Hints:
mainly alpha; rod-shaped
Amino acid sequence: MKLVVIGMFIFLGIGQPAFAEAKYSQSLLGAVETTELAAMAVKGKQQASVDVHADSLFATGLREIRTKNWHAARVTFEKVLLLNPRYPGAAFFKTFALDKIETSIAGTPSYNIAFFYQFGAVLATMLIALLTVGIISIFKVLHRYEMLFLYVRTIHWTENTRSRTHEKRLPWSSFWRK
Length: 178
């Protein structure tokens, strides 16, 4: 049972974000860049120069997103957040780039895979409905032929027997006498 649950988590890709974070977190930001940027913000350089540097890094990150270079975009937005943790939009674009990295590692394309799950569920529901209607109609046709067979057999049976007591037991015997 545990193997089934583990296999299900692997199949659904739930374990992929943690794997992606562990794999790329060490290689993306070097220790030198981190300490350099933190020192630049902490040492008390003028806030205007820090903001200008954050603005240029933000523009670089947007350029990296346009070229679909997700790793460089994530690194750039992390640098922006180190300079100014409240920089508008930097956290969003960092998580956006991280999501793109995770989907590329997981092997799934970057489009929304939930649409295809929903589409498949709708198709499966339609297929089940069509099969149900088909099976019901087949049974109706078979029942119709069975009833026809019973009518023919009953008529043949009543014509061959001289006793009227058998005919009275049949519900449709009065119909055939008229």
